[in-house]
Amino acid sequence: MTxxxxxxxxxxxxxxxxxxxxxxxxxxxxxxxxxTDTVTVSVAEESSMHVAGEGEKIxxxxxxxxxxxxVDVLAEHLDTTPAELGxxxxxxxxxxxxxxxxxxxxxxxxxxxxxxxTLWKLDLSRDELTRLAGKLGSDVPFSLVGGTALGxxxxxxxxxxxxxxTFHWVLAFAQRGLSTPRVYxxxxxxxxxxxxxxxxxxxxxxxxxxxxxxxxxxxELIGNDLQIAAVxxxxxxxxxxxxxxxxxxxxxxxxxxxxxxxxxxxxxESAVQxxxxxxxxxxxxTVRVASGPVPGARVVEPDGGP
Length: 306
Ligand code: ATP
Prior knowledge:
The chain has 11 helices and 12 strands. By secondary structure, it is an alpha+beta fold.
């Protein structure tokens, strides 16, 4: 049973003050991108996890892996134990950078949830799956649903945004990942010592720009409050962001908590040109072209492939 699941970019990310529970109140507009991970599950003699592709050496293979936690959440939902459900082999083929601000771990959790519930014929509705996804992490429901959506709360309360147009992106992967909690702490610190201006405006106008399909209009509005914190921790990102625009992108921003930089391009052809120029600029580890919106987690190979 093989499921493919998208990455995301936050085209708009407004971060409110820290709440009593330590989380920040967010208003975000997510877009699911064609850069994907693949999750394959099968019944096995013994449970095991296999990881290949992006960041394979640093992804945990044990219960810290978010895809494993999907087994626990399903068992809990069925009022049983993982042992009762039986051993499974979970294989991740990663295209999404690890700790890159593109929700790679959340994608694998959403993929595992859909793949395992299909493998075990649990017959869960999309709504039930989305509720279980919320237990695995704030970004997991969006990985399941995909498309373009407005997220509030911790980002897990979703409202779909209708867009009939495809947008073209270039993604610059950094040498090393960034820890999401560390980036939020840095934002809190910067807000404590000064008053950094918010990088974002009103989400309604962003949604209108998405609906218009005009990348020039959207380019003027994309923004991320976490960018200032990511750049503070990794000053070299400033150079990457500049290089993308110099390479011909309409605008660039740090994706989520970073350090991946996402550049909005005029069209598919321009994205290919920007990616070639950016690769030659030596300001990042890897460059990828992607488009969005794309659907959320979906079964591609019911029998797990050849
Ligand atoms: P987000 O955008 O949701 O804040 P991220 O994309 O920045 O997250 P992830 O790739 O999800 O970050 O990884 C964050 C950490 O989670 C990693 O450092 C890794 O130790 C752990 N992790 C757990 N499961 C996975 C997984 N399946 N893939 C990648 N990392 C995982």
